[in-house]
């Protein structure tokens, strides 16, 4: 797909317009017919009375006569539909189709545009109700300490789990004290994700499940009892989670601990022996008072849910006494946890704990639920004081990092008049953020791409937005939630449903140790009903030069380190989806079409996927309807002129390939804010003698080192063991490569996982190292996937005991593709003795040589310039030594564009060769310069050209 093609924004080689510069005609290639690459729909389906939208994703503009219709099977049921051109998004031309008026109920529908069909989908009276059993099935299959075949009766959900995700009762020996000398009964709870950790900061989801029942339990579809035990499944699941919280209270009296320990890709019953007191018992760690506060809120919500189920008759009268006793136990536990957290506010918050507003934010969740449970006004008073003191710049969403939005929505009906005013003001500001952020692209997704997927914040915002609609009836919110949910069910450029089991094309390679073949080539993945994965990253974690945003449903065996995060799921990622699915079911066919959208705010430059350097000018539309433009995160005022606002972001201190987000806001006449976001990638330095490319400095620096991982000992030939640790030696951060051989034939293989680096333009692999082991010999190999080269020569080399930089000439291996370089270290001892190697830095370098090139005759398209007409910039590159440029780059407002030779056949640069590129510039006043290097001299830059006005 064109997701990969978009990287040409930096590496492009084509001149894409025709212009005349200095008498030279630069011809554009003939335009090709557009190709539709994806017709995307919600594979989860649509409700008959709901908003319905799909997309055509094409590589160019489509003709006006492009056909559009809806089929059921092979029968045309909607003969025509209208394509709305939404312009370019992420390197593609996007067309939107609104077929909301089509309300036929049925299955096997497809949207067909230009002869290309979408995946199949259904239209139901209430499509969301059909997935509620998957929502509770997810949590049942994440249960710890139980046999999940018992927790999941046969046929429990309409989407069946893969047989291999079921597991026997595991970790029955949880947990030992930090020093291993004492045992605590901490069985139960939910595994947070696929790694079997149970984190205090995330067990709050028991309360989210209880609150879901409390909000929607009077809707018949919500109060289901799928296991036929006489109790609504939401209440069952909330109580299961609450039991773990109470065990934690029994064990420690108030502090909340994590229980970690992931093990290999095997079922949990195989991780430990299940016998209390043996060496493999998992140990507690990371005590945090934030988990205590959230446990208080969750237990209070569970007590409320139990009593509501009794009062409504959802729990049979004969069972009411027993369940009321459980509610009382939960209430007592809630008070105890709250009192502890309230009197220990200065204790560490703990892992996965609230970071927005600190412990006061976590306690807000507890205070609201305790007030609603007990009626004690003191809890409400404290909660409203926290709300009143909360800055309205904190507009994050409900998850482990911010309990505020959920807590405010819960408190609003019971708040004082002043409390109601503050709550609505806050939640309205959050709604403004959601509505104006989701209009950055046609897809209705929150524009917050990062390196842990976008879906977690996105669905959490959707749940908050739905709660706003429930409280205040703003139909814009309900529409935004519907569209935002379609995104996760396949209405996206990848045509992929990120909800396991839902849709014709859904994610299969979930990152979970329940899939024991996840790391085995040829694995087929699993279905864990309803599990939502984190989804698109800003970049491919295996390829820093990839397109943005990026997603691929690839096997876990292809990933290393933390690179699997795009297919990660967790009980907290699930929480927003869980709440929204039940809430939309309860909403039924409520109207969604009334309301004025927020004034659109657009960041014209930079754009996601572009590479930037030094000072980057941010261009945003201002117009007459938005004022007070400001640049986040500190909301620094921007400069406005002629309908354009600009501000500057300095990226010179950021590491190469850093991905970051820019936020801009403007103020509407009503005082409401409108937001927009953009992303950029910091470019690596051009390869010169004075700009080495640090690969690993073993102090969390360098392209690999910044990820925080040590090198791996993959293999030991002829037995023995190897190990890599980061340490400090002679005042230097260094990697300690250690080998304990079995014989003199033993060889230990070390790699930076399977990481590769783009070292194009660099001549030497330079390694600064020393070894105190006289018997140690080192072999270094560099490969590119197709060929492998021993850069240390045919015989392993000895390493000095003094710090020495060894330069290995990669030019000696012309078959090596340096843009995909992978490094391997092999240690071997000449005798059966231990050996250690200290490595201070691994980098790529160049030598200074020859004369520097010259750039001249810089010019750009003359005359009146507009955003619709690309601007062509030309320069002449001359090098007296005849050295071709590594690159000639145009840097406009800090954004890099690769220039191309006007005449590719002119390879003699001693008399000058012309380079050019055509770029589309947004409205505003721009500046630019051209830069280059021949790799053996410093970067050459032309003077900055300013005042390039585009109107």
Short description:
The chain is an alpha+beta fold and 951 residues long. The protein contains 15 helices and 43 strands. Strands 4, 6, 7, 10, 11 and 12 form a six-stranded mixed β-sheet that branches. Strands 24, 26, 27, 29, 32 and 34 form a six-stranded antiparallel β-sheet that branches.
Overview of the molecule:
Helices cover 22% and strands 25% of the residues. The chain contains 15 helices and 43 strands. Helix 6 (233-252) packs across helix 8 and helix 13 (455-472) runs parallel beside helix 15 (571-587). Strand 10 (106-113) and strand 11 form a beta hairpin. By secondary structure, the protein is of the alpha+beta class. The strands form 10 sheets. Strands 4, 6, 7, 10, 11 and 12 form a 6-stranded mixed sheet that branches. Strands 24, 26, 27, 29, 32 and 34 form a 6-stranded antiparallel sheet that branches. The radius of gyration is 30 Å and the shape is globular. The two termini are 34 Å apart.
């Amino acid at each position: 797909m064109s997701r990969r093609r978009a990287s040409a924004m930096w590496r492009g080689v084509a001149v894409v317009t025709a212009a005349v510069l200095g008498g030279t005609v630069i011809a554009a290639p003939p335009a090709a017919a557009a190709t539709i690459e994806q017709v995307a729909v919600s594979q989860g389906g649509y409700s008959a009375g709901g908003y319905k939208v799909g997309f055509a994703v094409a590589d160019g503009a489509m003709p006006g006569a492009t056909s559009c219709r809806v089929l059921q099977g092979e029968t045309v049921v909607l003969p025509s539909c209208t394509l709305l051109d939404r312009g370019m998004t992420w390197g593609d031309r996007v067309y939107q189709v609104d077929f909301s008026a089509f309300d036929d109920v049925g299955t096997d529908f497809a949207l067909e545009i230009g002869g290309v069909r979408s995946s199949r989908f259904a239209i139901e009276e209430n499509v969301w109700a059909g997935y509620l059993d998957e929502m509770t099935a997810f949590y049942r299959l994440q249960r710890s300490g139980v046999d999940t075949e018992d927790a999941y009766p046969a046929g429990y959900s309409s989407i069946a789990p893969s047989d291999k995700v079921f597991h026997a009762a595991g970790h029955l020996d949880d947990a030992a004290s930090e020093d291993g000398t004492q045992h605590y009964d901490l069985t139960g709870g939910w595994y947070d994700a696929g790694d079997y950790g149970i984190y205090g900061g995330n067990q709050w989801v028991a309360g989210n499940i209880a609150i879901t029942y409390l909000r929607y339990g009077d809707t018949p579809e919500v109060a289901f009892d799928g296991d036929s035990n006489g109790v609504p499944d939401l209440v069952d699941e909330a109580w299961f989670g609450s039991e773990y919280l109470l065990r934690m209270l029994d064990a420690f009296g108030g502090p909340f601990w994590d229980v970690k320990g992931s093990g290999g890709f095997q079922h949990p019953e195989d991780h430990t022996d299940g016998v209390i007191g043996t060496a493999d018992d998992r140990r507690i760690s990371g005590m945090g008072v934030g988990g205590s506060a959230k446990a208080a809120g969750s237990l209070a919500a569970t007590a409320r849910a139990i009593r509501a189920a009794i009062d409504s008759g959802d729990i049979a009268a004969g069972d009411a006494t027993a369940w009321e006793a459980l509610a009382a136990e939960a209430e007592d536990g809630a008070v105890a946890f709250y009192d502890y957290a309230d009197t220990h506010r200065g204790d560490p918050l703990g892992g996965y704990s609230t970071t927005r507003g600190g412990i006061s934010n976590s306690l807000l969740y507890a205070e609201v639920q305790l007030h609603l449970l007990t009626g004690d006004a003191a809890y409400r008073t404290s909660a409203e004081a926290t709300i009143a003191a909360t800055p309205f710049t904190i507009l994050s969403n409900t998850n482990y990092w911010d309990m505020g939005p959920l807590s405010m929505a819960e408190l609003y009906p019971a708040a004082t008049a002043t409390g109601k005013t503050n709550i609505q003001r806050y939640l309205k500001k959050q709604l403004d953020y959601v509505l104006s952020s989701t209009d950055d692209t046609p897809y209705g997704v929150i524009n917050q791409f990062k390196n842990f997927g976008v879906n977690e914040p996105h669905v959490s915002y959707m749940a908050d937005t739905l709660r706003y609609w429930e409280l205040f009836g703003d139909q814009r919110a309900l529409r935004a939630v519907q569209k935002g949910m379609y995104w996760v069910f396949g209405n996206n450029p990848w045509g992929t449903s990120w909800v396991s089991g839902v849709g014709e094309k859904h994610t299969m390679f979930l990152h979970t140790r329940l899939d024991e073949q996840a790391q085995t080539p040829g694995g087929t993945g699993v279905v864990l009903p309803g599990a939502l994965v984190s989804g698109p990253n800003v970049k491919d974690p295996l390829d820093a030069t990839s397109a943005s945003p990026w997603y691929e449903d690839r096997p876990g065996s292809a990933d290393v380190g933390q690179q699997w995060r795009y297919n990660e799921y967790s009980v907290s990622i699930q929480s927003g989806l869980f709440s929204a699915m039940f809430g939309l079911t309860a909403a039924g066919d409520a109207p969604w079409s009334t309301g004025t959208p927020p004034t659109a705010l657009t960041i014209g430059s930079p754009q996601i996927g572009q590479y930037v350097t030094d000072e980057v000018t941010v261009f945003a539309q201002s117009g007459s309807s938005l004022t007070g433009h400001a640049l986040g995160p500190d909301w620094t005022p921007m400069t406005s002129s002629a309908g354009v606002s600009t501000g500057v972001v300095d990226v010179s201190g950021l590491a190469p390939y850093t991905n970051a987000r820019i936020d801009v806001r403007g103020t509407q006449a009503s005082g409401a804010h409108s937001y927009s976001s953009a992303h950029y990638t910091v470019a690596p330095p051009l390869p010169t003698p004075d700009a080495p490319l640090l690969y690993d400095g073993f102090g969390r620096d360098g392209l690999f080192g910044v990820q925080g991982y040590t090198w791996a000992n993959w293999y030991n030939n002829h037995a023995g063991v190897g190990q890599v640790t980061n340490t400090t030696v002679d005042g230097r951060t260094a990697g300690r490569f250690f080998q304990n051989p079995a014989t003199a034939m033993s060889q230990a293989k070390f790699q930076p996982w399977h990481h590769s680096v783009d070292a194009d333009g660099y001549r030497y692999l330079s390694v600064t190292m020393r070894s105190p082991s006289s018997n140690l010999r080192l072999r270094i190999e560099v490969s590119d996937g197709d060929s492998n080269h021993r850069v240390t020569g045919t015989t392993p080399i000895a390493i000095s005991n003094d710090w020495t930089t060894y330069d290995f000439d990669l030019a000696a291996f012309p078959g090596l593709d340096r843009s995909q370089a992978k490094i391997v270290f092999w240690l071997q001892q000449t005798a059966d003795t231990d050996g250690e190697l200290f490595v201070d830095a691994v980098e790529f370098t160049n030598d200074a040589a020859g004369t520097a090139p010259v750039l001249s005759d810089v010019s750009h398209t003359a005359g009146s310039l507009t955003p619709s007409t690309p601007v062509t910039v030309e320069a002449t590159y001359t090098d007296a030594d005849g050295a071709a440029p590594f690159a000639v780059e145009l840097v406009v407002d800090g954004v890099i564009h690769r220039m191309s030779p006007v005449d590719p056949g002119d390879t003699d640069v001693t008399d000058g060769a012309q380079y050019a590129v055509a770029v589309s510039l947004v409205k505003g006043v721009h500046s630019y310069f051209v830069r280059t290097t021949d790799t053996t001299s410093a970067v050459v830059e032309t003077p900055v050209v300013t005042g390039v006005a585009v109107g």
